[in-house]
């Protein structure tokens, strides 16, 4: 509802566009620093703080509506989103690894992405009635409450990074633990994972292998997630161009987002067999479905095929993230993942710019931009596995 709020506050289209740009730029600038902070201090603390910053931004919008407040709110939202980006993936991966369940990462994150998608759908469903019942004040209050709830949920997540996890508090690390704390005396430096990549030993706590930056896996995440992550903003226009009335668009969009939700649920199953070639074929098939749906002249056909395409892209996004987490070595997991998120934001911004520059009908624009997936698919098919590489999984 924020676009309506801005318009009702008297902002011009140019001012609204400048706010969106500020939102994107603030997130990009905060991504890497927030990931480094989460690695050095606490990933759970980052997940707690992020929604609270977003809540403060929403409160500013409703209680002091003006261009300056809207800009400050978007900056807070951008930083809040950056705090969660990278920290969540790193925390989930390391805690699963500690529990000896690293192979479950794609399934867990797939369900998380599905829950996120269903949350978006639910918020779309209740926003209209809330606005009619209590105006922007009620919508803002519920939005702030949702953010506070998200922060409270983050507080319940486990994170074995505090002083009580150090050897002097819990005795020598046994061979079955698989995770030896190491680092500085305050116990805040990230420890090694369960695969034993970080040296152990109580007298050698300062020697931590530096983070390894896997360039290929790092670039794959934005290459997979960026384009379709930007195109979803244009799906209402695409469906309307296919013949849907304004009152019907939201119903057809449920098909699109049902597909995205299903894609996340398939991640656990697909993660067991989908290697480089499988991921490349998934990207090609999803891009083909997206292009085919964009050219159909019926809203039902367009929404159905785009929904199937989004299912494939959501699945590919989770699998690309899982490949990145498998490839990261050393303590900087949240930092590396945040850099991947920053890359995704940059691809999203570039896609917005390309869409506007095309100046074409929406069906043609979707088709042209779907062709961008030929690049990561080709690189996945052509890339050779380095000799002698092993890992927690065999997806590489």
Structural summary, described in words:
Helices cover 70% and strands 0% of the residues. Helix 2 (13-40) packs parallel to helix 4 (67-84) and helix 3 packs antiparallel against helix 5. The chain is built from 16 helices and no strands. The model is unreliable at 162-210 and 386-396 (pLDDT under 50). It folds into two domains: 1-165, Growth Hormone, Chain: A, CATH 1.20.1250.20; 215-384, Growth Hormone, Chain: A (Up-down Bundle), CATH 1.20.1250. The protein is mostly helical.
Instruction: Give the CATH superfamily of the largest domain.
Output: MFS general substrate transporter like domains
CATH architecture of the largest domain: Up-down Bundle
**Arithmetic mean of pLDDT:** 80
Number of domains: 2
Q: Which strand-content bin applies to the residues?
A: under 5%
CATH class of the largest domain: Mainly Alpha
Biggest sheet features? none
Quick take:
This protein is an all-alpha fold.
How would you summarize the topology of this molecule?
Elements: H1 2-8, H2 13-40, H3 43-63, H4 67-84, H5 87-98, H6 105-155, H7 167-170, H8 215-231, H9 235-241, H10 249-265, H11 267-270, H12 276-295, H13 299-327, H14 333-358, H15 362-370, H16 374-382
Helix pairs in contact: 2-3, 2-4, 2-14, 3-4, 3-5, 3-6, 5-14, 6-10, 6-13, 8-13, 8-14, 9-10, 9-13, 10-13, 12-13, 12-15, 12-16
């Amino acid at each position: 509802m924020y676009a309506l709020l801005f318009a009702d506050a008297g902002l011009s289209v140019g001012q609204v566009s400048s706010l969106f740009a500020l939102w994107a730029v603030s997130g990009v600038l905060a991504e890497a620093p927030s990931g480094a902070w989460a690695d050095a201090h606490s990933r759970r603390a980052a997940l707690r703080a992020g929604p609270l910053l977003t809540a403060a931004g929403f409160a500013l919008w409703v209680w002091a509506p003006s261009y300056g407040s809207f800009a400050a709110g978007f900056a807070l939202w951008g930083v809040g989103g950056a705090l969660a980006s990278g920290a969540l993936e790193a925390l989930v991966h390391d805690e699963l690894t500690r529990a000896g369940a690293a192979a479950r990462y794609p399934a867990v994150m797939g369900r998380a992405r599905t829950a996120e998608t269903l949350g978006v759908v639910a918020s779309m469903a209740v926003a209209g009635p809330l606005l009619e019942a209590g105006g922007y004040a009620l919508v803002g209050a519920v939005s702030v409450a949702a953010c506070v709830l998200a922060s409270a949920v983050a507080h319940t997540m486990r994170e074995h990074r505090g002083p009580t996890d150090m050897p002097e508090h819990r005795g020598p690390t046994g061979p079955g633990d698989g995770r030896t704390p190491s680092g500085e005396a305050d116990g805040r430096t990230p420890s090694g994972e369960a695969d034993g990549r970080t040296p152990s030993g109580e007298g050698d706590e300062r020697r931590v292998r530096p983070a390894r930056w896997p360039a290929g896996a790092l670039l794959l995440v934005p290459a997979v997630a960026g384009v379709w992550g930007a195109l979803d903003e244009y799906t209402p226009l695409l469906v309307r161009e296919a013949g849907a009335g304004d009152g019907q668009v939201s119903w057809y969009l449920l098909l699109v987002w049902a597909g995205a939700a299903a894609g996340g649920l398939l991640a656990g199953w697909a993660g067991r067999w989908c290697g480089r070639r499988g991921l490349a074929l998934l990207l090609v098939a999803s891009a083909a479905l997206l292009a085919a749906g964009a050219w159909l002249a019926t809203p039902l056909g367009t929404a159905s095929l785009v929904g199937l395409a989004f299912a494939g892209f959501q699945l590919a996004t989770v699998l690309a993230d899982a490949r990145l987490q498998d490839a990261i070595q050393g303590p900087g997991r949240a930092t590396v993942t945040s850099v991947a998120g920053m890359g995704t934001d940059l691809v999203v911004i570039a896609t917005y710019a390309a869409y506007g520059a095309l100046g074409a009908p929406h069906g043609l624009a979707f088709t042209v931009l779907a062709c961008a997936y030929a690049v990561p698919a080709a690189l996945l098919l052509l890339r050779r596995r380095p000799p002698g590489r092993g890992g927690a999984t065999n997806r590489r």
